[in-house]
From TrEMBL:
This is Flavin reductase like domain protein. It comes from the Bacteria. It holds the Pfam family Flavin_Reduct. InterPro entries: Flavin_Rdtase-like_dom, Split_barrel_FMN-bd.
Amino acid sequence: MFYRPEDGHGLKHNPFNAVVTPRPIGWISTRGADGSENLAPYSFFNAVAYVPPQVMFASTGTKPDRDGTKDSLANIRETGVFCVNIVEYEMRDVMNVSSGSWDRDVDEFDKAGIARFDCETIPVSRVADAPASLECKVTQIVQLPGEANFVTFGEVIGVHLRDNCIVDGKFDVLKYQPLTRLGYRDYSRITSLFELKRPDEK
């Protein structure tokens, strides 16, 4: 099968998200200039550089009360900072609650009953029990083709690691089993690992 996206795929559901999988989930916490807080998951998320460490996430939707974007990006435009919280399998249900298109005055931490701590380097809350949280300052926001497609890039200036996830000097993902996004309404979790060495490694 071959199709051009501009012509449509002819299937019952769009296969694009099912092709690019699994995707890590960036659970983005932000605070507006007025002090209101927001927490929302984004599966268009990834790390993009080591030195300095940098991440990105893309917002691709709109809310009628946010002038062509969503709460996360609106808050980031006001403050220039955000926190990425990593989602473990055990947090799947509360993460899902936070994904709702709630009014801008709804605090998803409260809505889903999620405990929060203050970040160390930025004025934002983070998910208290997350396996890891990345405190970020915005480096650039890029508008992509399409009505509401924006990519936010951030430099990581603070890193929280949950103590029980550090084993023999490594951050062990099997201690929390990262939740990943697939296509449609499907998710998965990481439950096993294997190692491959590069051909030129000794």
